[in-house]
Specification:
The structure is a single chain. The chain has helices at 73-85, 90-97, 100-104, 136-147, 161-172, 188-199, 212-223, and strands at residues 2-7, 15-19, 32-37, 40-51, 61-65, 178-181, 203-206, 229-232. It has 236 residues and is an alpha/beta fold. The strands form two sheets. A five-stranded antiparallel beta sheet has the order 2-1-4-3-5. It has a three-stranded parallel beta sheet with strand order 6-8-7, sandwiched between helices. Helix 1 (73-85) crosses helix 2. The two termini are 39 Å apart. The model is unreliable at 107-116 (pLDDT under 50).
C-alpha cells in the first residue's frame, strides 16, 4: 500500500495520507494534491512517498493536480532546512514560498510549451545605472562561495549605486538561479532595464503589487525554466 506525506500551507507539519491505486504511478514529491484537512478540502504538496503498512486509519488523497512537481527535491530540502533554521513549522514555510494562487490554480508550463509573457515594471525613473571599476578580489570571494555551494553572507561597502550595481553584475553573470532583492518596489525600475538588456527573458519580476494573474505567470516562468533570475522585494 502506498502512502504520502503531505504538507499544507498552515501552521502544522506534514501529515500522512493513503495514496489510492489510481494515483500510485502518478504522484511524485513536489506535486500538488487535494485532501481533506479537518472539515475542508485543501491543496497541499507531497513531500515524500512510501510503501508499507500504516498502523492507524488514514484518509485518502482525493486528487492530483498537474503532471509534474512544482517543487524540486532541492526546494523540498530547502523548505525543510528553513523550517529547522528559523524554528518554524514546515507548513508556514510552504505558505511563504509558494503563492496561494499556484496551489489553487495549477497551470504550469513546461520547457517547449507556450511562451509566457514577461511582466514589465513601471516606467523607469532616474538615470540608467552604469558599470564602474571594482575590486575583483571581492568578486572572487563571492564566486568561490557560489562554486563551492556553501552558505555564506557578504556585506559590501559600496561608495555609490554604480559600484554596487557593478559588483552585482560581476557576481551573477556566470551564475544560475539568482534572486535579487531590493528594499522597495520603486527601486525595481532602475535595475530592470540594464538587467534585462544583459539577461533578457532569463529575468523575471516578482513583488506584492503584481496581480494574481501576473504573479502566477511569473511563477510559471520560474517553474518552466524560462527565467532563472528573479528581481523583486522581500516577497520574492
Amino acid at each position: 500500500m502506498d502512502f504520502v506525506d503531505v504538507l499544507f500551507p498552515v501552521n502544522i507539519g506534514p501529515l500522512t495520507y493513503r495514496c489510492p491505486d489510481a494515483f500510485s504511478q502518478q504522484v511524485k514529491p513536489g506535486m500538488v494534491i487535494s485532501a481533506q484537512l479537518k472539515k475542508s478540502i485543501t491543496h497541499g504538496i507531497i513531500l515524500k512517498k512510501t510503501v508499507g503498512r500504516c498502523q492507524r486509519s488514514v484518509k485518502d488523497i482525493l486528487a492530483v493536480h498537474g503532471s509534474s512537481p512544482i517543487l524540486s527535491g532541492y526546494m523540498i530540502r530547502l523548505l525543510q532546512w528553513m523550517s529547522d533554521y528559523y524554528i518554524a513549522a514546515q507548513g508556514l514555510v510552504l505558505k511563504n514560498i509558494v503563492p496561494k494562487e499556484i496551489l489553487l490554480h495549477r497551470a504550469v508550463c513546461h520547457p517547449g510549451d507556450r511562451e509566457i509573457r514577461q511582466v514589465d515594471p513601471k516606467s523607469s525613473s532616474g538615470d540608467d545605472l552604469q558599470t564602474v571599476p571594482i575590486d575583483h578580489s571581492i568578486i572572487d570571494m563571492v564566486k568561490s562561495s557560489i562554486l563551492a555551494h556553501t552558505y555564506r553572507c557578504f556585506l559590501l561597502h559600496a561608495p555609490s549605486s554604480a559600484y554596487a550595481f557593478s559588483a552585482l553584475m560581476k557576481c551573477i553573470t556566470d551564475a544560475r538561479n539568482v534572486i535579487i532583492l531590493v528594499p522597495e518596489i520603486r527601486s525595481i525600475s532602475k535595475l530592470y532595464d540594464p538587467l534585462f538588456r544583459q539577461f533578457g527573458q532569463r529575468l523575471c519580476l516578482f513583488h506584492s503589487e503584481l496581480g494574481r494573474s501576473a504573479r502566477r505567470e511569473a511563477f510559471e516562468r520560474i517553474l518552466s525554466h524560462q527565467s532563472d533570475i528573479v528581481l523583486g522585494t522581500r516577497s520574492a
